[in-house]
Design a protein that fits this description.
Elements (H helix, E strand, L loop, with lengths): L1 H22 L11 H18 L3 E5 L6 E6 L7 E7 L19 E3 L8 E3 L7 H16 L6 E7 L7 H9 L8 E4 L11 E6 L1 E10 L5 E2 L10 H10 L22 H7 L6 H8 L12 H4 L5 E9 L9 E2 L2 E10 L5 H14 L6 E10 L2 E2 L5 H14 L4 E4 L6 H9 L3 E3 L15 E3 H22 L1
Parallel strand pairs: 3-6, 3-7, 7-17, 8-16
Antiparallel strand pairs: 1-2, 2-6, 4-5, 5-18, 8-15, 9-13, 9-14, 10-12, 11-13
This protein binds ligand BES and manganese (II) ion (2 copies).
Protein name: Peptidase M20 dimerisation domain-containing protein
Pfam families: M20_dimer, Peptidase_M20
Keywords: Hydrolase, Metal-binding, Protease
Length: 462
């Protein structure tokens, strides 16, 4: 497909500018102040799919934000690829740490992206990666090389748990029927070494509230005589890991699949420099579960992390007070086979049990999802590997990621098909962080690689 290369070269400025326009709309799904922007982004995605050449494009209403569905059916006897992506983004805060405003995209160079990268919230996660698929479709239709049917399903609630998408998928099995699901919402090792994500972690996300006395108290008059909810919460959280950094919740590891020595040896072959990793984060040492190396700790092992903790006086100066309540948001990343409902229950029971008599504990589950692993001998994986090999010059390495896309396990359950995670982002692209960016090279290579996936998938399906 020499043609795709020249098509991309010829149209790259337009491809970049169209993405920049999409990135200007602040589609923050977590914050209702942006709800009109989220809806406007859905409409912009819809227009881009029509323009690319879909025969049918619909705004599908849901209990939450709309799902944009598009399709180009060329022959019902040919295979069908279902592309999934999300047009919503994470909140941009902390604003003051952005070197340029999050919704005013600019191109800047970095050490890792000497050809430039687009800086904006959503550049990599997931507007940039989703839009590669729209442009790849445009190319295949313009050049008359679309080798099979394609369906698009682009949602606006991924960053807040995909509740409406689950609702939609359960009600539209026939409409969404496909032979393979293709997603670009993950990363790869580096621009010299592509990789294909073969696993995602599951997630259980809870909020805890610890209540002590019925009102805030003078910390001199009452200090030492009543349980301080903040002290207690800190102690309870600290007790959730032992000295080897194992999680202490009874039953937490019961269903965890241990990898064989061979599988771990295979994982260790992926290029990784601990020195570079530490330097990039400016830390003197890594930290984690005893018995596992960094690449295992952040992918094949479950974790428990506090994402936020608050309570008491945090304003200027000092106020002497024992707060009535303390709070924390806690996430547990899970590995395949751990059930997130079960883990949420185990957490709730344990956290309530370890509270001393002087406080009461309330645990509120937020959202969650199951982990995912996909085999590397499927037609889809092989086609993806052939596509990367052609555009990057070296075969892709299978890698299990630490991130979560909870809807992927639901796709398998409801639609009975496998997902191929063809990501083009890099860990250094700062997704969910200030100064998120996406390499121009990654964006254009993605557009080049996707049509090759279609070509090889159809060839291998024959
Ligand atoms: N695209 C990410 C997930 C991701 C990124 C997976 C990089 C692998 C590599 C997705 O948008 C995301 O942020 N997911 C959330 C979970 C969701 C339920 C909020 C996550 O992983 O925290
Ligand atoms: Mn994403
Ligand atoms: Mn995300």
């Amino acid at each position: 497909m020499e043609n795709i290369k020249s098509y991309v070269q010829q149209h790259k400025d337009r491809f970049i500018n169209e993405l920049i326009e999409l990135l200007k709309i602040p589609s923050v799904s977590a914050d209702t102040a942006y709800s009109q922007d989220v809806i406007d982004t859905a409409e912009a995605v819809k227009a881009s799919l029509s323009q690319a050449g879909c025969d049918l494009v619909e705004t599908c209403d849901t209990p939450g934000y709309p799902i944009i569905y598009g399709e180009k059916i060329i022959d019902p006897n040919l295979p069908t690829v279902l592309v999934y992506g999300h047009y919503d983004v994470q909140p941009p805060d902390p604003m003051e740490l952005w070197t340029s405003p999050p919704f005013e995209p600019v191109i800047k160079t970095t050490d890792i992206h000497p050809d430039g990268a687009i800086f904006a919230r959503g550049a990599c996660d997931d507007k940039g990666q989703m839009y590669m698929h729209v442009k790849a479709l445009e190319y295949m239709i313009q050049s008359n090389t679309l080798p099979c049917n394609v369906k698009f399903m682009i949602e606006g609630e991924e960053e807040v748990g995909s509740a409406s998408l689950a609702w939609f998928v359960e009600r539209n099995q026939e409409k969404l029927k496909n032979d393979v699901i293709l997603i670009s919402d993950t990363g790869m090792i580096s621009n010299q070494q592509p990789s294909i994500t073969t696993g995602l972690r599951g997630l259980s996300y809870v909020e805890v509230e610890v209540t002590g006395p019925n009102r805030d108290l003078h910390s001199g008059l009452y200090g030492g005589a009543v349980a301080n909810p903040i002290n207690i919460l800190a102690k309870m959280i600290a007790s959730l890991h032992d000295e080897d950094n194992h999680i202490t919740i009874p039953g937490f590891y019961d269903k965890v699949q241990e990898l064989s020595a061979e599988e771990r040896a295979e994982m260790a072959k992926a290029p990784f420099s601990l020195e570079k990793y530490k330097n990039a984060l400016n830390i003197a040492d890594v930290y984690g579960e005893k018995g596992y190396v960094t690449n295992e700790r952040n992918s094949i092992r479950p974790t428990l992390d506090v994402n936020g903790i608050w309570g008491g006086y945090t304003g200027e100066g000092a106020k002497t007070v024992i707060a009535s309540k303390a709070y924390a948001k806690i996430s547990m990343r899970l590995v395949p086979n751990q059930d997130w409902h079960e883990i949420t229950e185990l957490f709730t029971k344990h956290f309530t049990n370890i509270a001393p008599a002087g406080v009461t504990v309330k645990v509120t589950p937020h959202h969650g999802g199951q982990g995912y692993v996909t085999p590397i001998d499927s037609i889809g994986y092989k086609a993806a590997n052939m596509a990367y090999t052609e555009t990057f010059g070296v075969p892709a390495i299978p890698v299990r990621s630490g991130g979560s896309i909870p809807i992927v396990s639901l796709f398998e359950k409801e639609l009975k098909s496998k997902t191929i995670l063809m990501g083009f982002g890099l860990d250094s692209d700062a997704i969910h962080s200030p100064n998120e960016h996406f390499g121009i090279l990654n964006y254009l290579k993605g557009i080049e690689t996707i049509p090759l996936f279609y070509k090889y998938f159809v060839e291998l399906s024959k």
